[in-house]
Amino acid sequence: MYTERASRLAGAVLWTGDGAGRVLPDGCMDLLWHDGRLLVAGPDTRAYVTEGAPGTWVGLRFHPGSAPAFLGVPAHELRDRRVELADLWPASEVRRLRSRIARAPDPAGALEDIALERAAPPDPVLHALVNALDAGLPVGATADELGLGARQLHRRSLVAFGYGPKTLARILRLRRALVLARAGVPYAETAARSGFADQAHLARDVRELAGVPLGRLLGAG
Hints:
By secondary structure, the protein is an alpha+beta fold. The chain folds into 2 domains: about 5-120, no CATH class; about 125-220, Homeodomain-like (Arc Repressor Mutant, subunit A). Helices cover about 50% and strands about 15% of the residues. A hairpin with a 2-residue loop joins strand 4 (about 30-35) and strand 5 (about 35-40). About 35% of the residues are buried.
């Protein structure tokens, strides 16, 4: 069972689940609570598959690009990794937070409160970058629109998202395609509307990023 709801933290999502399944790249990072532990899920460049440890997992999924400011760690250092929060923050501080969440009647709410207390103001440039790429604007045109050079855009993307803007654009394009495909839009039309060259291009990206064919992915979802 998996449920999610919008967080009071701008652009974030609170979710609960059993921890099992195929987690697809989404440009985001998560703060996780499970069995008395606080962990961080770094940005994925490929599907992360887990059977899940017994018990309920609670997570706060940050808006793309916003978690590094909260954590104080560049996203690229956590790329394709799951780490203990105590590896990033002082152990005494993490113990205090773990105790706080464990005592709370609503662990999800406690996790959200911690994020709200420590969240940095949104970076308008990063927000505009995500919106532009998610709308299908080419990386070069996005850089020009934001007044950034290619190298500067790449450096900022590594820190904020864990990878360059072309990888982020590719991941966001796949997300758009899956929304359409899950709504029953034919694959060829899904590919065209999402910005793929054709259906074969969509199929290749699904296999590379999700690790399974599109039909199997949708059936599993």
